[in-house]
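[Q] Does anyone have a clean structure-token version of this?
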Amino acid sequence: MVKERSAWLKAIVLLLLIVGAFVSIIPFLYMVSHSLKTIAETITRSSAIPFDPKFWPRVPQWSNYRVAWQEARFGLYFRNSVIITAVTVGGIVVTSCLSAYAFAKLRFAGRDLIFAILLSTLMIPQTVLLIPNFVIVAKLGWIDRLPALTVPFLASAFHIFLLRQFFSQIPNELIEVAKIDGATHLRSLISIVVPLSKAPIFTVVFLSFIHTWNQLQWPLVVTQTPRWRPITVGLSVFITEAGPETHLRMAGAVIAVLPVIALYFVAQRQFTEAITRSGIKE
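[A] Here you go.
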């Protein structure tokens, strides 16, 4: 009786998960289907149900992507996003690894207090920091330049906390043995801690990539010309200029989201492993 009830419960949970996943993917499918329609089909053949033939285009219009890429100058914006994201993610990984190792493996006065203060910054809404960050960036003369889009985000309290929790699980004996062999703390971090923490580091890369790639408010504030505007800003400007051309809007949205999807499929196993090992220990 208990086994039957457990089987039914698992079936219900599985069914709910399938329904939830299906509902969640509908907006993405809607975006893709409309990106392949003609402008007439977006008006006359539109449906919110994937099982309805009107949901899909009669003949996929792959040229919509080429037109959107050219009209919206996505080549420039895409390049900018790649550079901004690469610099920011690289900086976050370096600062997070160094800081997390210090908080996890080093003993110094005020360590726990400093870590507590660092965590308290997570309660501050990003909107509150918008004006102070803008004033600092403006005084430094970084408006419409690459440092304005990267430097304020080269460190993250959340990612430091995440890596610190994983680094704390690594036995201190490994560090001590490395010290006996003459290794410095930096050498221990690079040779021991980082190789054992590939899953959480991949998680930091993935999460910081998504956050940086999808930023819109801050780039809108600190850029005045297309010179360093990322693809999110380019997409918003294109939406304004494109008028009722829904098919081109959707094609631009697909182009903007493809790198995030590609990265997830590349790092899916590491990301899943990091979640399954996310039990926090001291």
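[Q] Thanks! Anything notable?
[A] Residues 40 and 247 are 9 Å apart (CA to CA).
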